[in-house]
Design brief:
The complex is a heterodimer.
Chain A lengths: L8 H16 L4 H18 L2 H13 L1 H10 L5 E5 L2 E5 L1 H7 L8 H4 L3 H8 L4 E6 L7 E8 L4 E8 L1 H37 L6 H33 L7 E4 H13 L7 E5 L4 E4 L1 H18 L6 E7 L5 E6 L22 H6 L6 H11 L3 E7 L3 E8 L25
Parallel strand pairs in A: 7-9
Antiparallel strand pairs in A: 1-2, 1-5, 3-4, 4-5, 6-8, 9-10, 10-12, 11-12
Helix pairs in contact in A: 1-2, 8-9, 9-13, 10-11, 11-13
Chain B lengths: L7 H34 L2 H32 L3 H29 L16 H21 L2 H31 L4 H33 L9
Helix pairs in contact in B: 1-2, 1-3, 1-4, 2-3, 3-6, 4-5, 4-6, 5-6
The chains are: A alpha+beta, B mainly alpha.
Amino acid sequence: MHKSHTLPWAGLMIAAVAAVLLISAGVVVPYAIAVWVVWSLTLLISQPQEPLVIADQRQEGISRENLIGMIENAHSPLLLVDRKRVVIANASARALLGRHVIGQDVRVAIRHPRAIAMMNSDSHGEAIVSGLVRRKDVWRVSRFAVDDRTSVIELVSKTAESDVSRAHTDFVANASHELRTPLSSIIGYVETLSEHPDDIDSDTAKKFLDTILREARRLQNLVSDLMSLSRVEAEKHDRPDEPVALNALVERAAREGAGLDRAERVQYSQDGDFEVRGDPQQLEQLVRNLVDNALKYGRAGTPVDVRLSESSLGEAKIEVKDHGEGIAPEHLPHLTRRFYRTDPGRSRMSGGTGLGLAIVKHIVERHHGRLDIESELGRGTTVTVRLPRDGIVKFPVPTQTTETAGLSQEGG
Amino acid sequence: MISEHTVKAFDEDITRLRGLITEMGGLAETALEGALDALIRGDEELAERIVADDRKLDTLESEVDRLAVKIIALRAPMADDLREVIAALKIAGVVERIGDYSKNIAKRVGHIEGRTRFEPLTLLPAMGEVAAEMVHDVLTAYAARDPALALEVIASDKKVDAFYNSVFRNLVSHMVENPATISSAAQLLFVARNIERIGDHATNVAEMVYFAATGDYPLDDDS
């Protein structure tokens, strides 16, 4: 725009030179000046045409370069398709599909029949395709028509989600593996004991029997955890409505969860009286599991704080806090998955089944509560469960656990 | 990357030709994956759909033929363009064959009895995986004009052949021991044969891709 304000200096100079030449040719001075003024004015009047031309160019020039800039750094792979040809592929699309797709038929980039059928129709649409880059991956291909020849294609990876559904099917395989491990060591030790009773001195025999007992207990825990998990899951959708006095329940369950030998490490505190509608057995199990986890993964001898208080939204809040090594952030989203272990060896040594938090999660969901896990490496982990209080539910409560601490939904 | 041609319509024809080939490839790939899936799960409905879908491949193949002939007749392509068109013509035929073999596998799904207890069935998925991987890779190599990936596909044909031999031996000994299951086992023998042929055809496509990209035929090292 500012170009229109600059004076046409060259034109003005030519006009001035012409006036001087007229004077020197003998024309009277006022005439020469008049000619110069009229010439200069015409120059100035003709000026405003230029801005119009510039504006036109802008309108045309906006499309391609600006579009490239707009989509270039988007996280999801985007393709701009002009009459079946890929004209722009942004950085993530180039990384995913390769540079070669630019200028090629869009079918070269995405060859799945479902996607091609979708792209052949003129409207918006989406298709779930597999084998886009690698054989078993899953992507959602969405097409947005810009006008009748141009469209934008967005690719969203669904591989992780299809993995989650695969995790359900893997569950049986996992569970049988978990059950088999203790069984085979029990069988192994019992076989040794019964086949060579004379070669084994009483010390070794004692050691063997201890191992057998430990493995048998583990098996017992595992079976009872699996039972309660399937029970909780079966009733997932009907919300329990028995009135439960939380204070006494939490205190008792925390003590039970600790057992006699660890009871002094649990420090219970409460702030107000709470009554919720729920299933007392399941709530007890929830607290027991959390306390047991905190004692197991907290440093030996450090206290575990169990605190019952009111959340900022008026819910009953149960916090279980340990002073342990904490959990690395990358593990947090997976903690409620069945059989997920941050450190498989240690978890097995301490008798963990890998199902505790999965059960907790399902109980919380059934009670329409929320579960958060916060952890700081070196400082410890805090698990917070918030349960809507009886009769004072003023807002629709999400049925899922929140994901504020990076805690995603399940895995199982 | 092939540079732009002065005649823009020629460019468009080549692009369309490549688009058609990859579309055929996508169909053949899905047919193979689906046929293997149907075979393992005994899903006869899926198998029927695959048999029906094979027609699309035939239509596309004749479309490729027409377009390739038209390009040669009207534009008289030279050098790498000619290679591209010739390769496309040949690849279309081979991909169509891959689709046929997949259809053939799907057709046999209904002929296998007592599948839940039929132990030889467990031999085939791993073999199918390797062949499906080859088909997938060769199509990607075609799309990217990547001769290195094509060579890799050619190399993995040995794996399919090794699988075929062991599946064959297993099935034959299974038939000797359980004469009652011979008809089902014979069906599986044909399935294994089809998978093996698919591997060979994927190798053929890989050779074409290599040829189109470099102008040479890859050295045949298994003779």
